[in-house]
Each structure stands twice: as structure tokens, then as C-alpha cells.
Amino acid sequence: MEFFRISRDIPFMRHALVLNIISFLTFAAAVFFIATRGLHLSIEFTGGTVMEVEYAQPADINKTREAVEALGFGEVQVQKFGTSRDVLIRLPVRGEMKQGEVSARTFEALCSAEGGTVQNKSYTTPQGEQVSRMACVQAAAGPTGTSVSASGTGGVAVSAADAEPLRLSRTEFIGPAVGSELARDGAWAMLFTVAGIMLYLAVRFEWKFSVAGIIANLHDVIIILGFFAFFQWEFSLPVLAAILAVLGYSVNESVVIFDRIREVFRKYRKLTTSQVIDNAITSTISRTVITHGSTQIMVLSMLIFGGPTLFYFALALTIGILFGIYSSIFVAAGIAMWLGVQREDLIKGTPTKNDDPNDPNAGAVV
Length: 366
Fold this sequence. Notes:
about 375 residues; Alpha-Beta Plaits; two-stranded parallel sheet; 4-stranded antiparallel sheet; alpha+beta; Multidrug efflux transporter AcrB transmembrane fold; 2 domains; about 55% helix
């Protein structure tokens, strides 16, 4: 399927040198910002406190986020988890405050936002153990209009009429060691992905395309990381997942162009390498518009309507898609041209009799 067909080849490779100089400067700037400013890592990598809160009614996520951010703990993450009544809260490490105190103050702020008070509530487990927990109690009004007190450690009995607008389901502390392990595993995942892509391209095509494809992929990854370092956007596990997705997405575009280059080399003997690449890229433009356009529409919907939970994930994908198109055309194809790829590297044999070696515009269109 195609939306349009371009009758004449666009001379992309004529501008490859200038655009690759711009790419190199952009790449160098991204490396500079990563080295000097660093990434603003989320608590999955730095450690912190994870709280799961269950509301009696569907949670107002914006109200919950405002209550937590008002405490001034820094960069916090608030998102729905499971059902519409469950909320997951991630809090960063506070060096001057114990994590137990951080979770207690957070729960107290959430309870106050719901018009309740935090008290210690004792109960007996099915195993017969006496335990206590923090409870957010919203006292019911008595017959005289006064509130019926709930009980805590202060010695006042808990009324059965008291309601809990929210419950603290669990609290976990993620230590820095766990965060370091996640960062290390993420780096290994990216390394294995790059190695697998390079091996595939070397087997599928030729080592020159393999080198060109990997440089183009690393170009996209470093550019994304450079944006996150420069603007100090939060780098979390979903962002890492987006980068890994961009690696596969970008190499897919490069493989399509490389495959078309091989087809054009097979059809036309008299075209130069730059003309072959121009013809291959021009013939795949319609396919590029369809695939990248439809993908970007979906990603933009997450970026605009996905809320804070999906914002940086969708933002990383948006940057990766845009730069993936650019790098596949000007970085991957340009480097392959400068490495001296030629017809003999890709195919063996002679063209078929039905092919016109002087026709620069024939060939299938994907």
C-alpha cells in the first residue's frame, strides 16, 4: 500500500555530509550534557519508599498527587495501580529523615486530604496475634452532632461506626543496592540488544551495513539520553523500556532501506552507490510515512492523554521515532556509502534480461 509515488529520485546523499556534521555536533552536545549534568534517575535506580494505598472510593489521582507533592519530598511518582481505588506512590530517599517517618508523614497528608485523622488501630490476626497498624479514621457524627472519637494508642475506644476513607496496603523500602542492580541490568539489556542487532545486520547484509546500523542506533539512544540530561527529565524504567523499543524500531527502518539498496543494486548496474541509495530511500518514503505516522499518532495520544505516568515514556518514544527516521536516512545510509558499500558486497551474479540498466526509477515500492 502507498499514499503517493515520487517519480524522480530525491538526492538525499547530496546533503549527507552537511547533515552528518550537524548530527555529529548534536551527538557531541548530547554526550557533553550526559557527562556534565547526568541523568535525573527515578527511585527505581536511586532507592526510596514505595507505598500502596487503597481508597474506599475511586481515587482522585490529582488530589492524591497534590497532597504528596505539598510535603516537599522532591520528585515523587503517583499512579493508579490495579483497580481504580488503588494508588501506588514512590518517594525518593531522604537523607535527613528515616524512611518510616517519610511514609508516616505521607499517609498522614493523604488522610488529612480525605478529612480523617491517623491513629494506631489494634486488631487480632486469624492466627491470634495482636498487631497494630496506622489507620485513617473518619469519625461518624454522634446523635448530638459531635464526633465519635476513634481509638489509638491514646486509650480511646474505636467506634464501629468509624469509616476508613483509605488504607495503607503496604510499604516497601528500595535500597540503593537494589537501584544499582536495576541500573546495571538495564545497561546489560541495552548492550545485548545492540550486540544482537549488529550480529543480525552482519549476517543479513554485510559488515559495512552492520557498522552503519549500529552507529545510527547509538546516535538515536544518545540523543534521547541527551534530551533527558539537558532538561533533567526523570529517567525511569518505562523510559528505559522506551529506549529499548526505539532500538528495535530504528533498526527496522534501517533494514528496510538496506534491503531496498540491495534490490536496486541487483537491478541497475550503471547507477553509482549514491544514486542507488537515493533511489532506495525515495522508493520507501511512502512506507515510512504510513508506518511512522500511524505509530506517532498512537504515541502522541499517550503523550497528551496518558497523564504523568506515561508522559516521559511517550516523550522518549516521540524523540526516538523522529530521530530514527533521520538517522536511518542520513546516518545509516550515509555511513554505508562512505564505508564504500558496492554491488559486489551484497549480491553475486548478473541482472536479469528484463531489467533496464538505464532506468533509475523502476523497482518495487513498499
